[in-house]
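Entry:
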Amino acid sequence: MSRQTQQDDRWLAGYRRIAVIILLMVIVTTLVRSYQINREEAQQLSLTLLGEQFAERAQRLHGIWLNERRPGTLHSAGHGWQFDERGWPLGLLPPQSPSENCRQLWLALVGETEGSMPPLQFLARPDGSGCEIGWDGYWLVYLFSDGRVMKKP
């Protein structure tokens, strides 16, 4: 085998290694990006399902409030509940700041979220019509007018 052929074989092997490394980098990058997108979608779906659970439990409290003949405060499940004039829960007793009422209401009805989700933020709506629950880019809105929970537009 000539010296030129050996040198050509070394160059060819080097090019193959570079091609394999580039291909592996593309595959890994694609997998990481896919994971990130799917994780975000899974977190949003989890929050949506928790929002539905929150709405169901708020509706259950509304039914108890109606059965109890619309009291100003209601004691149920070991908590004192504060309601608006239409019978939708506003928060726990004693009343606190509007955003803290939203947080306490969520924690009492749903509980703590699992560690795989970003930490939730709780904000009272500026017009006082409900609560906003979520994190940057994805929010749910709980409306005091009818107890609905929906994705923030």
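The chain is about 50% helix and 20% strand.
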